[in-house]
Amino acid sequence: MSRATEPRELALFGGVPAFPVQKHVGSPNIGDRRRLLQRMEDILDRRWLTNGGPYVQEFEKRIGAMLGVKHCIAMCNATIGLEIAIRAVGMTGEVVLPSFTFIATAHALQWQQIRPVFCDIDPDTHTIDPGRIEALLTPRTTGILGVHLWGRPCDVEAIEAIARRRGLKVLYDAAHAFGCGRGGRKVGGFGDAEVFSFHATKFVNTFEGGAITTNDDDLAARIRLMKNFGFVGYDDVGYVGTNGKMTEISAAMGLTSLESLARFVAVNRRNHGLYREALAGLEGIRLMEFDDVETPNHQYVVLEVDPERAALGRDELAQVLWSENIIARRYFFPGCHRMEPYRTLDPAAGERLPATGRVAARVLSLPTNTGVDPDDIATIGRVIRRALEQGARVRAALAGRAPATPIVVPHRRIDVDLA
Ligand code: T4K
Known about the structure:
Blueprint: E1 23-24, H1 33-46, H2 54-67, E2 71-75, H3 78-88, E3 94-98, H4 103-110, E4 115-119, E5 141-147, H5 156-166, E6 169-173, E7 181-182, E8 185-186, E9 193-197, E10 210-214, H6 217-226, E11 231-233, E12 236-237, H7 248-259, H8 261-278, E13 285-287, E14 294-295, E15 301-305, H9 314-323, E16 326-327, H10 342-345, H11 354-360, E17 363-366, H12 374-389, H13 391-399
Parallel strand pairs: 1-16, 3-4, 3-5, 5-6, 6-9
Antiparallel strand pairs: 2-10, 7-8, 7-14, 9-10, 11-12, 13-15, 15-17
The site of ligand T4K has 24 residues, from helix 3 and helix 4.
């Protein structure tokens, strides 16, 4: 564990960085190590490492029961999960999705020659704005891919009404939304299917992993075939497939994570409250809050820095934090439409995405989860406050410098000597 030191002078001005070791967004939540190690021993004893082993089956059953959804199919990661779900529901041609998301959402379509058509977001919730979807539909559109960003469920009622009217498939990228819901409805059963990520940085992690959930029996059967090369029998393939399987060791981590879910969410909720206190009253700084009807997992603490009102812009504040070893992330700057191949394929997309552009220029995710403690948050809050108080000085110091992104250092480097 790193120890935070009281920042007297900002590191930008030659002071000692607030943290001796980098503080990350997405530092993994880790459950009961003893249980995990027991399960790992069991896996080795059984000599059954992957291909639908007992831990994967248990993991799928537990998630299905927890989310109240008929089928859960564990995956090696959410990106492959999205690709398989997209293919299994029969999306082709064009699919409407937000640009304000992790690049994997768009790539999962483009990877299979489906054109991602970027839609603007609601600037308050950061999720797709259903009021802008219909204007983007063409005869080639086959579906809508919503993203429950930060664990905030999309406006599923409005999206599903459009889909019904226009005969479209609906998928949700629920990478951030495990354990989330709204108005008593849990993420997992919306649309034709939903796709979760259990990457190391997610609320529940399986090192790498993901899952597709659906209430559609035929779709679930197709997905199961597709994720296992299309095998329908011992020596028989009936479908074009790929390898989307989760390993036993990942499922063991997942089961162990599920057992600590209540602790993870309690810590995340506490952290969110502590950030609220630490950042209270700062001009031009907005902490993303959730509606009373939502059940968030609080896996992300998201700030918006208003360049008109705050003493520093988002990028200036990020530079200050990075120099203090606080590795805040500009998720999801600059928006998928401004990355390749999309910016070449649709160079004018930004014109119809004003809210995406505005939000992408303001957002900053701060370290949270079980990897930070209340002292860390107090320190991060003090650094932000101090940076804004000394806004003019910080701006002047950064003016001549090229913006530099941080070099992420894993906690311990391993030097392999092959000589
Ligand atoms: N859809 C959405 C909306 C998503 O956000 C994602 C993934 C996906 C789909 C696809 O899911 P997967 O196929 O990954 O299951 C990270 C994650 O790799 C990615 O899973 C996640 N979203 C995205 C938001 O964040 P990067 O490129 O930012 O990763 P990286 O290596 O910079 O790590 C992020 C931070 O976490 C760093 O500050 C370091 C820290 N970290 C990372 C790892 C792996 C740790 O402290 N420990 C670790 O073990 O994408």
